[in-house]
Amino acid sequence: MKVTGLLAAFAVIAVIGLLPTILGGQWIGIFISTTCFAFAAMGAGFMYSRLGMVSLAQVALMGLGGWVTLRLNHATDLPFEVNLLGGAVATAVLGMLLALPALRMRGLYLALVTLMVAGGLEVVFTAFQFPNGGAGFWGVGTSFSAPMRRPTIAPDDANYLRYCLAVLVLGFLLIEAHRRSAPGRAWALIRRSEAAALASGVNVTFYKTWAFGLSGLLAGAGGGLLAASLGLLDAATFRASESVLLFALVIVGGARFWYGAILTAFLYRVAPGLLNTWGVDADLALVFFGAALLHAVMTAPDGIAGQINDLLGKVRKEQTRDRA
Amino acid sequence: MKRTTLLSAGTLLASMMASGAFADTICGANTGEAATGAPIKVGGIHGNAAPGDFSSSTTAANAYFDCVNANGGINGRPIQYLVENDQWNPELAAQAAAKLLKDENVVAIVGNGSFVEMAVNAPTYKEQNIMAMASACAVSECFESSNIVSTNQGPLSSTVGAAQYMVEELAAQSIVCIGLAIPNVGNWSCGAMEEYMTSKGLTGASVLLNPASPDVNSSLLEAVASGSDTILVNLPAGLAIAFMKAAEEQGMVDSYKWASSTPLYDQSVPSAVGSAWDGKMYINAELTPWDKGGPDATNWLAVLDAHAPDAPRDTFSQSGFLSAKFFVDTLLKMDPAQLDDRAAVTTAIKAISGYTSDLMCGPYYVGEADRHMPNHAGTMVVVKNGGFETVRDCYEYDSPYFAPIFENEKALGLR
């Protein structure tokens, strides 16, 4: 087990170190976006797989994280990390607040509430736009955008991709730490039966709210990282329809496994990037996504990640049989 | 005598036929021989997705480069023009610039047309020391940046110019500007129009549409609610036509004075909007009207006929052609050994001063400055008899916004 863990850590470090060196400028940009959206996918995936809750507001919450990070950047001289944390925590707090009225709902109704939240945020982003260094609360100036600071250790795109990947690993570890401790056990019980969880003394309200907060924290971090990657944000990126699309891809990618979030983000950003590179209209990706969703719903409920897991399981079994 | 007349008539006919056959394009060194050397890489980025298509600038630049390549190129070397579409998406805009600047190592960016690209990439252009000779700029960053210079005027100048005409000639007292809620576009340009109106003791207002789901009917009602006597449409052509159709359906064409910034100056617009708008819609043209004649205006149409016959004939097309022409003129004057050196090309572009063209009202220049807006004088036209009629020839716009630009021109000895 220890050896596997060490190997995994080595593989992660190798990917973070080598990936930016083998990619060109355009693909570094695509992978930065992919990494940022992996945060949102991770949050949506863990809420769905651990609690059976559907959140259709993940991309909109990213926008909120990006908004706060940009606002702090233009209002203060604080380092990027502090602004990013501010954006992530603010999104987590909003996530928790939104969870409170939604807690009595489940399934479709909960999904609809989160979708309404995404729609509401879309209206706010479109009407007030994202801060660009202007005056006042909304911080929107009509002239040249003020610079958005990046981490001092990652001013260029290649190092910024490494930075984003490292933060993504922290995000995965945070979820894993939750899964292995009290919240993970509580979530497992709640998923089985809320009544049983209540009877066992689990504070259902607290742990559900906590899950919303954690998912908001991750989405907010993704939004903040995206803001620093581009220097500015646009409302079109965070439309409610994008949140729905991302959730559909979470199902396709596979919510039960950690690498499902990476597969989701790959589908969401790398697939259109590939089509663009090949000179094909990137909107065609939506057609493929629709077909992939049908496939997932009908034959692969655990998504591509589930299929990979099954495949690995079979290989392992065969190896054990061969050894025997 | 008779024979001489016949001979001259024959010569004239022959020369007319010849000019028809060769379409009279004049491109670069104009040698008539195709360039075969190692290509010089040049980039271009346009936006083509909802809410508008700005690709006519890069299409026209591409047509001119094709023509130059067929006529000796740059000292025998063809220009390889690499065009990307940002689809109005900041992420794609940044990726397009990274591809062109870092992966393809282009020496300059020419013919850009977008709402988004310049805002995202202005810092990158500065950092990479590359010049963008844009053509269909719409955001403030296009005009307030050290490494971008645009041949078009952008919505701010065009909107202020249209408002100025409406106030001076048609006695407009209050104008409402219909723009897009895109950062540093709608609020920037419509805001400057409001400032202009305030400076004249008149009133201005703005209505900004959501570019993702523009609702022309509700924005029309908002415009009516502002109580203005003049409606100034500051939208991409397709959306502006939809807005005008909505106004026509509501029977508002005769109730207001109507004006527009440059996107409506497109050959297809008069027939698209119909006879109800005849003599009603006043449009600011950022470059000179295409029927005005002149060597560049004629050459622009000839180049499009020869190399992009299906391309739209609009202001952004004129602008893309002109940016490409100024760029080629600059390269032809450079030391051939430095053509692959981005820094040398940037220096050469920044040294441009006092270029003139019949397509522009004033001189074109770049200079070493933190803002560039060489084109800030235009023409007013009105939709008339299925076409356009010039109602005011080249005039300079009156706004405090232009003060620093005039200072730059004084420093370059152009004013």
Structure description:
- The complex is a heterodimer of chains A (about 325) and B (about 425).
- By secondary structure, chain A is mainly alpha-helical.
- In chain A, about 75% of the residues lie in helices and about 0% in strands.
- The mean pLDDT of chain A is about 90.
- With about 425 residues, chain B is α/β, with parallel strands linked by helices.
- Chain B is about 40% helix and about 20% strand.
- In chain B, the strands form 5 sheets. Chain B has a 7-stranded mixed beta sheet with strand order 11-10-12-13-14-15-16, with helices on both faces. Chain B has a 3-stranded parallel beta sheet with strand order 5-7-9. A two-stranded parallel ribbon of chain B has the order 1-4.
- The radius of gyration of chain B is 22 Å and the shape is globular.
- Mean pLDDT of chain B is about 90; it is low at about 5-20.
- Chains A and B meet through helix 2, helix 9 and helix 11 of A and helix 3, helix 4 and helix 7 of B.
- Biggest sheet features of chain B: 7 strands, mixed
What's the number of extended β-strand segments of chain B? 16
* CATH architecture term of the largest domain in chain B: 3-Layer(aba) Sandwich
For this entry, what is the oligomeric state of its chains?
heterodimer
Q: How helical, in percent, are the residues of chain B?
A: 40-55%
- DSSP helical segment count of chain A: 13
The biggest chain-chain interface is: A-B, 35 and 33 residues
Short description:
The complex is a heterodimer of chains A (324) and B (415). Chain A has 13 helices and no strands.
Write the layout of secondary structure elements.
The complex is a heterodimer of chains A (324) and B (415).
Chain A: H1 2-22, H2 25-51, H3 58-75, H4 80-102, H5 107-128, H6 157-179, H7 182-192, H8 194-199, H9 204-230, H10 240-253, H11 258-277, H12 284-299, H13 303-323
Helix pairs in contact in A: 1-6, 2-3, 2-6, 2-9, 2-10, 2-11, 3-4, 3-5, 3-9, 4-9, 5-10, 6-9, 7-9, 10-11, 10-12, 10-13, 11-13
Chain B: H1 2-22, E1 40-46, E2 48-49, E3 52-53, H2 56-69, E4 79-85, H3 90-103, E5 109-110, E6 113-114, H4 117-127, E7 132-134, E8 136-137, H5 140-143, E9 148-150, H6 154-170, E10 174-180, H7 186-199, E11 203-209, H8 216-225, E12 230-233, H9 237-249, E13 257-260, H10 269-273, E14 281-285, H11 295-307, H12 315-333, H13 342-350, E15 377-384, E16 387-396, H14 403-411
Parallel strand pairs in B: 1-4, 5-7, 6-8, 7-9, 10-11, 10-12, 12-13, 13-14
Antiparallel strand pairs in B: 2-3, 14-15, 15-16
